Amino acid sequence: GEEDLLLINKNGLRFENISHNLGKDFQEKFVGRGSAVGDYDNDGDLDILVLNLNNRPRLLRNEGGNNRNWLMIQLVGSKSNRDAIGARVRLKTGDKVQTRWRVSSSGYLSQSDYRIHFGLDKEEIAEKIEILWPSGKITNMSDIKVNQFIKVYEAE
After folding, report:
1. Reduced to 3 states, what is the DSSP secondary structure of residue 81?
2. What string of pLDDT tens digits covers the 156 residues of the chain?
3. What's the burial of 126, exposed, middle or buried (CB within 10 Å: 0-12/13-18/19+)?
4. What is the C-alpha to C-alpha distance for residues 92 and 144, in angstroms, rounded to an integer?
5. Which of 144, 76, 70 has its CA nearest to residue 114?
6. Residue range 69-153 in CATH 2.60.40.10
7. Do 154 and 84 contact (CB within 8 A), yes or no?
């Protein structure tokens, strides 16, 4: 086995290994086979479940404090498939646009949270959300408050 690594993105230019700052879970040797990311405790930040060969899974709860804003969106299809797999969600705040795709799986022996998470830093409103459903329909929303979970249904 090997020690797990946690890398942080440094402005899209490089990754930095911060594992040595994260305690005993990152000093033990495991044979990791899969990971799933989601908001396990529904507090707005993302947690990680690591699946290990011949060993227990490990839940790495993000307890670093939520001092940044976020929005989680659950999609429910009607004409499209119920889980909205294949949907594209674009969220605009200020001069930034983030895009996420609703996918069917996310890794070997793993499935991440079906809800789509957007990290919004200090933005207080999601100015515009555009959902392109697999059916080709488009849902537009505007001026959505942050730090909440929302469920969006595809129009019939």
Report:
1. coil
2. 777 788 999 988 999 999 888 878 777 888 888 889 999 999 999 999 988 888 888 898 988 767 899 999 999 999 999 999 999 999 999 999 999 999 987 777 788 999 999 999 999 999 999 999 999 999 999 999 999 999 999 998
3. buried
4. 11
5. 76
6. yes
7. yes
